Amino acid sequence: MEQYFVKQAITTNNLTIEDQEIFRHAIKVLRHKTGDVIYLVDPTEKLFKATITNVAVEEKQFQVDLELLDWASTELPIDVTVACSLSKKDKIEWITQKSTELGAKTIIFFSSKYSIMNWKKNVVEKKVARLQEIAKNAAQQSKRRVIPEVIYLNSLKDLVDYKTEANLVAYEESAKQGEISLLAQTLKKDPKSTLCAFGPEGGFAPDEIDYLNQNDFLSVGLGPRIMRAETAPMYFLSVLSYKYELTVK
């Protein structure tokens, strides 16, 4: 069943959907009609089963009867921020989509020394809006209760303003040196929130790592293999899913 995020808090048992994007997708693309069922999530993260009761094509809206559902949360029990240096356009969009599916709450992109892409000021708003839409669509597809926030930072130094309880930086030199335990040790402390920074295809410059380390970011290895820029954040999120969602306590 399709799931959509509505902008208004749902406080009654019936609702008129006036969002043009939802109407286009639900009625025009998927051809839903009276009696069909969809799911809605409101800004308070409540999930509703919605039965379509009337479709007004000329007004581009439709009405639904609602039933509040008490489903298990689809959110990770830890707030996760993945911060990635700019990569090629298709990789950035892929990272946004898959990070959303894997449970990230915040997705940050930033410019660093070895970034192969740089965004000019006049395109940042448009690019972030595009990525935010990708995150929204991925959240609907994966039945998330929350749409991750997508943020762009002009500089790696700005990342310290987003520090969480546990702050990490994935560093391939740590992996090459055989460091395999710091990530596990950090997660054993069961932090309520974590941020992990990932470099571009060329990795982080040594002075960038020094800066992050001086600002309480712990350099960690992600196993013995060197991963692509777009693979490392997915590995990290998968580790968190195993730790917090699949391991029997």
Features:
6-stranded parallel sheet, 11 strands, 5-stranded mixed sheet, 25% strand, 7 helices, single chain, 249 residues, alpha/beta
Describe it for me?
The chain has 249 residues and is α/β, with parallel strands linked by helices. It contains seven helices and eleven strands. The protein has helices spanning 20-29, 89-101, 121-141, 172-176, 182-188, 206-214, 232-246, and strands spanning 3-5, 14-17, 37-41, 47-56, 61-69, 79-85, 106-110, 149-153, 166-170, 193-198, 218-220. The strands form two sheets. It has a six-stranded parallel β-sheet. A five-stranded mixed β-sheet has the order 1-3-4-5-2. Helix 3 links the parallel strand 7 and strand 8 (149-153). Helix 2 packs parallel to helix 3 (121-141). The protein starts with a strand and ends with a helix.
How would you summarize this macromolecular structure in one to three sentences?
The protein is of the alpha/beta class.
**Helical segment tally?**
7
Instruction: Give the terminus-to-terminus CA distance.
Output: 31 Å
**Which overall shape is indicated by the principal axes computed on the Cα atoms?**
elongated
Question: How is the main sheet built?
Answer: 6 strands, parallel
